[in-house]
Write a structure and sequence with these properties.
Blueprint: H1 3-15, E1 19-20, H2 21-28, H3 32-46, E2 53-58, E3 61-66, H4 71-77
Antiparallel strand pairs: 1-3, 2-3
Helix pairs in contact: 1-3
Length: 78
């Protein structure tokens, strides 16, 4: 995994709310096209069946979330 992809993943995990790519770009001084590539890498990673996470894209925001097929087990914990 490229460092930028890992950094983006860590930011989204820690933030836990939708976060605008433009804001990440501004704060980290990273060009938007590079962030879009990192987001695509995360989408591919989470598209695997063995991942319990998914990346949600709404307009220009990203958010990490759990996959629906994990909800039953997650509800038992929380």
């Amino acid at each position: 995994m490229e460092k930028l992809t890992a950094v983006l993943e860590g930011i989204l995990f820690a933030w836990a709310e939708p976060l605008a790519l433009t804001e990440i770009s501004r704060v980290l001084d990273i060009p938007l096209p590079r962030l879009y590539e990192a987001a695509e890498d995360l989408e591919k990673k989470y598209a695997q069946e063995d991942s319990g996470l998914k990346l949600i894209r709404v307009k220009n925001t990203l958010q990490l979330s759990t996959k629906e097929d994990c909800f039953e087990e997650i509800e038992k914990i929380i």
